[in-house]
Specification:
The complex is a heterotrimer of chains A (494), B (359) and C (179). By secondary structure, chain A is an alpha/beta fold. Chain A has helices at 17-20, 125-134, 147-151, 175-182, 184-198, 212-222, 242-250, 270-282, 312-318, 359-362, 375-379, 386-394, 398-403, 414-418, 425-483, 488-493, and strands spanning 25-26, 33-36, 46-47, 54-55, 60-63, 72-73, 78-87, 95-103, 161-166, 202-208, 228-233, 265-269, 288-294, 302-307, 328-331, 338-339, 353-357. In chain A, 36% of the residues lie in helices and 17% in strands. The longest helix of chain A is centred in the C-terminal third of the chain and has 59 residues, at 425-483. By secondary structure, chain B is mostly helical. In chain B, 60% of the residues lie in helices and 0% in strands. Chain B is globular, with a radius of gyration of 22 Å. Classes of the chains: A alpha/beta (494), B mainly alpha (359), C mainly alpha (179). Chains in contact: A-B, A-C, B-C.
Chain lengths: 494, 359, 179
């Protein structure tokens, strides 16, 4: 299959060999599971269980809270110990409502799970989408966008390709690699089911060529299906970015502020495909995921399949704890992952890796003046000029940064990675994007307040006018009454 | 070591790059050519080199101290060594010590630190230093000597050389000789056509190796080229500026030479004289004062090549690279504004790409 | 002589008439700057600037005898656009950006007197006579007018909590990013 070049990018030290040969192992049930109500992009889900409720594995514990939202399910059988605020696995370290489940150790599936769909390709696409929504599946590559919403794109767009993202371009991470090697058939089946739900005639699986075993396993699993193609894509970070992978496969650039669906392409992650397979074939909602636990400070790096809600500290302990104190504990890969506020946070649906990195690995240094070497311009996969945007932001000119394209930045981190002066470029851009979005929200809020104030003023004015008119009418009536002699009618009315 | 949790956004890995690594790679690339030059011009050149680089480092120390920074860190990044080094090799090797000191003051204190220090200067500091002394002390700055390699017969001894660099009674006339570009220019002014005068300059091999009067940087084209290629291989510089610069210079020389050989020197002559290679690989490519985008760099290189040729051919000075670099430095902010990569998913004008169609 | 004086007089009268008519026809009814400034203000008529409402503050700004930093709900963003429009330099560094606030009614203290409801310019308080009143947080912009009129001190001003979706990275600190 012909591939197309993608601009820029970097070739970091991948360090995948630490976990790429360790088969996925299941984590024993922990003492408590913490299910946050916000594990996805969109509205938070709403708890449908209360303290003391007995839940079975797979039973819904929080229902979708809006159009873009996702349900959550009990990862094992047990008792709801609390519905309380708990630290989110998020750099802010803010608390968020969380359902705490104490496992009973029996790990019993709920009896009323929906039945598997025997022939999903004969089923109505809508039934598949509903099943995916009911199973609480979100994008498992890290973005955690509700998958059912993305599977709906076929209703408004004419789709040609479902692109299964097996690039796994982040260093260290091997969970997708292992999934493809160990569960290739499940991934391929899930992908074909999703293609059916989308109405896309073909499936392309893109895998970076540094995972030859995964390519081989997937090619074998897809051999029976002419509509599925497995492609090795160049090892070039950030190949796993949705838009860049689409460009490498189709040669087409997704226009700014549009979706890949506008080009007829929808991208889903391999772990998502496997989750769809389980949901559709067996009626099992998303209750576990594979997490790569790695980094120089982890004693025994591994790929662990953990129940959602497991504390990161338990995951680390399972991998032998820290061999030395880590400098950073990161949720996700080292390029785009987010630092964790503490180890006492739960595993969530979008968590692909837990990396405990040493100072040697993070290579944090105080920044030096920019020497305008232009490396960031050369490697930016989005064609931006990071040096210029950072200068604007440093001088608090956020509008200037917006004009030079900061909102088109995907925060892939390539510029910060390459910068010889160690300038935290992506930190600048994250700040600018957040501040600009906040400004936008504030503006919209003020507009709403303005409208409310105007309608209030109008109403007060009307009321005052009505009162005045009424008073005038009453006065006129009184005057008339005083002037005219009383008639019989008036007497009767009086 | 303590675990830091959430005071900083990612990435949490870094390429093995740093400012000092970049700078010292450049110095390493310059070393072979410089050693050859120092050998060729002997003790006076070595003294002048040490004085110039030393003054630059001392001034850097002073300026950073005054600005309240850490002088050790500023010198440690290696940028001032490059400035001093390039400045030294652009001077006449037998120039008196104070020329090097004055040039250093203008290069480091004025061109670099008055603009805010590393990364903030608009003009290439080494070239500012060179141009200031060139226009201020034309006699000393055009007193070129023919190479007298160290320990060879006729080369000045150590003590004699101290007198040349630090003494007060140097008869400039006794050592003065014209550089090839200067020679051709003077001859032309005397009415002798270029194609006749050029046979009297040293041959191609001598020009290539630098066996002719000139600055140190003019010598040993092969070693300078090797250093430049090394920098490209190390990805410190890209091909854009050197190729566009030398290409333009060669093209202009060749074209006009073809039209009127009596008036214009050939392309090859332009390339291998006047430190064209040093300028193209080490001076024009200075990060701080050249454009950041590849398109901008190509235009920048073409501009320097063109201006160099024009200055050499029509202006009063035989050598034009320094002026050309400074003129194009002034245009760098504009080039950066105008020549920028196309943003992913957008047209050159910044509008989102149309949804239908394949452009 | 007469002809000269006459013609000049006619010209004078005619031109005067033209100018007079033009002034009438092309008259600008309101100060355009005032209206423009008013559009830049939040328009919630909260009165925290010390003026009765946004229109009055805009008028004062147009006259140029009041600082641009008085609008609390508009925050730094509004100060910046006002300063830009008026061509003055606003010292936003000294301006403490106060976190957005909203009112909250303590249920045990509310006597249902309706005073706050009448005071609210954005209809953010619902309640009836002798009934417990409630704030609709989304519609409240923290002007604190209700806070001031409540006879039982049942209203408190709370900082709008930062949510996960609203949180964003702060600007890199000086020691992380070279200036």
């Amino acid at each position: 299959m012909r591939l197309f070049p993608v601009r820029g990018g970097i070739h970091p030290d991948y360090r995948k060999e630490r976990t790429s040969e360790s088969a996925i192992v299941a984590l024993p049930l922990p003492a408590a599971l913490y299910i946050p109500l916000q594990q996805h992009i969109g509205a938070a889900s709403e708890a449908v269980v209360a303290v003391g409720d007995v839940v079975k594995k797979g039973q819904i514990v929080a229902r979708s809270g809006g159009v873009v939202s996702a349900a959550s399910h009990a990862p094992t059988s047990g008792r709801v110990a609390a519905v309380t605020d708990f630290t989110a696995p998020h750099p802010s370290g803010l608390p968020q409502p969380t359902i705490v489940i104490e496992p009973d150790g029996r790990d019993e599936w709920a009896a009323d799970l929906p039945p598997g769909i025997d022939d999903p390709f004969a089923a109505d696409p809508k039934a598949i989408r509903d099943r995916v929504a009911a199973s609480g599946i979100v994008g498992m590559g890290g973005a955690a966008f509700p998958s059912a919403v993305k599977l709906n794109l076929g209703t408004q767009h004419k789709l040609e390709t479902l692109l299964i993202n097996g690039a796994e371009c982040e260093p260290y991470l091997t969970c997708d690699d292992r999934l493809m090697r160990e569960f290739a058939a499940e991934v391929v089946d899930g992908a074909r089911v999703m293609a059916h739900a989308l109405g896309a005639p073909r499936v392309v699986v893109g895998i970076e060529t540094n995972k030859p075993q995964a390519i081989e396993a997937m090619t074998r699993a897809a051999a029976a299906f002419p509509d599925v193609t497995v492609v090795g894509v160049p090892v070039q970070y950030p190949m796993g970015s949705e838009r860049h992978l689409t460009q490498a496969i189709t040669g087409r650039e997704t226009p700014a502020r549009k979706l890949t669906a506008d080009l007829g392409v929808v991208v889903h992650n391999v772990a998502t495909a496997r989750a769809v397979h389980h949901a559709v074939r067996f009626g099992r909602p998303l209750v576990r995921r594979v997490v790569t636990v790695s980094g120089g400070a982890i004693a025994r790096p591994a790929n662990v399949e953990a129940p959602l809600g497991t504390l990161v500290s338990e995951l680390v302990a399972f991998c032998g704890g820290f061999s030395q104190p880590p400098r950073r504990v990161v949720n996700g890969g080292p390029m785009m992952g987010q630092p964790l506020p503490s180890l006492e946070v739960p595993v969530v649906k979008g968590m692909s890796g837990i990396l405990a990195l040493t100072l040697d690995e993070t290579d944090e240094k105080p920044s030096q003046p920019c020497i305008r070497c232009g490396s960031c311009v050369t490697i930016c996969p989005c064609g931006l000029v990071p040096v210029e945007m950072a200068a604007f932001i440093r001088h608090d000119n956020l509008d200037g940064a917006a004009k030079s394209g900061v909102m088109d930045c995907v925060s892939c981190g390539s510029c910060s990675y390459i910068c010889p002066s160690h300038i935290p470029l992506v930190h600048f851009f994250n700040y600018a994007k957040g501040a600009l979005n906040a400004k936008d929200r504030e503006r919209r809020h003020l507009d709403q307040i303005k409208a409310l104030a105007e309608s209030h003023a109008l109403r007060v004015e009307k009321q005052a006018a009505a009162k005045k008119a009424a008073a005038a009418a009453a006065a006129a009536a009184r005057a008339q009454a005083a002037a005219a002699p009383l008639t019989d009618d008036d007497k009767a009315n009086a | 070591m303590t675990t830091a949790y959430n005071d900083r956004a990612g990435p949490f890995t870094h390429a093995p790059t740093s400012v000092s690594k970049t700078m010292f790679t450049v110095l390493a690339a310059l070393t072979p050519a410089t050693l050859f030059n120092l050998w060729m011009f002997g003790w006076p050149a070595i003294f002048l080199f040490l004085v110039t680089v030393g003054s630059c480092v001392a001034l850097e120390f002073l300026c950073v101290r005054i600005a309240g920074g850490s002088p050790e860190g500023a010198i440690g990044d290696g940028s001032v060594l490059i400035t001093g080094w390039l400045l030294a090799v652009s001077l006449p090797p037998w120039a008196p010590w104070w020329v090097g000191v004055v040039a250093a003051v203008f290069a480091v204190a004025l061109a670099k630190h008055a603009f805010g220090g590393l990364g903030q200067n608009v003009f290439n500091p080494a070239m500012v230093g060179r141009v200031v002394v060139l226009v201020s002390f034309p006699v000393q700055m055009t007193a070129w000597v023919a190479p007298r390699p160290l320990f060879s017969a006729g080369a000045p001894g150590f003590v004699e050389s101290l007198g040349t660099t630090f003494g007060r009674n140097v008869s400039l006339d006794s050592i003065s000789a014209a550089s090839p570009l200067g020679f051709v220019k003077t001859e032309l002014a005397r009415g002798i056509p270029v194609d006749q005068s050029i046979v009297n300059v040293p041959g191609l091999a001598d020009l290539l190796l630098g066996f002719h009067p000139g600055s140190m940087g003019e010598a040993s084209v092969p070693l300078v080229l090797a250093g430049g290629l090394y920098l490209m291989w190390k990805r410190i510089i890209s091909w854009h500026i050197p190729v566009s610069l030398l290409g333009t210079l060669f093209l202009m020389g060749t074209l006009f030479h073809a039209v009127d050989p009596a008036r214009y020197a050939g392309g090859l002559f332009h390339l291998i004289t006047g430190a064209s290679f040093l300028g193209a690989f080490f001076i024009a490519t200075d990060y701080v004062t050249s454009p950041v985008s590849k398109q901008g760099q190509i235009v920048f290189g073409i501009g320097i090549g063109l201006l160099t040729w024009i200055i050499r051919t029509y202006a009063g000075y035989p050598e034009g690279m320094a002026f050309a670099v400074l003129l194009m430095n002034a245009l760098t902010p504009i080039l950066d504004q105008h020549f920028r990569p196309r943003v992913f998913g957008r047209t050159r004008k910044g509008q989102p790409l149309p949804v239908k169609g394949d452009q | 002589m007469l002809l000269d004086v006459g013609s000049l007089a006619v010209m004078g009268v005619t031109l005067g008439a033209v100018l007079g008519t033009a002034a009438k026809l092309l008259a600008v009814p309101n100060n355009p700057l005032e209206e423009e400034l008013q559009a830049l203000l939040p328009g919630s008529q909260c009165g925290q600037c010390g003026f009765v409402g946004c229109a009055q503050y805009a008028a004062a700004l147009a006259k140029g005898d009041t600082p641009v930093t008085l609008c609390a709900p508009g925050g730094k963003a509004t100060i910046e656009v006002l300063a830009k429009r008026l061509g003055v330099s606003a010292d936003t560094d000294g301006h403490e950006e106060q976190a957005p606030q909203h009112a909250h009614i303590k249920e045990d203290l509310c006597i249902g007197c309706l005073r706050c409801v009448q005071e609210c310019s954005t209809d953010a308080i619902v309640g009836a006579n002798k009934q417990l009143h409630t704030i609709i947080v989304d519609q409240c912009h923290g002007c604190a007018k209700c806070f001031k009129v409540c006879p039982t001190e049942a209203i408190e001003m709370c900082t709008v909590p930062v949510t996960l979706s609203a949180w964003h990275w702060g600007k890199p600190r000086a020691d992380q990013a070279h200036h």
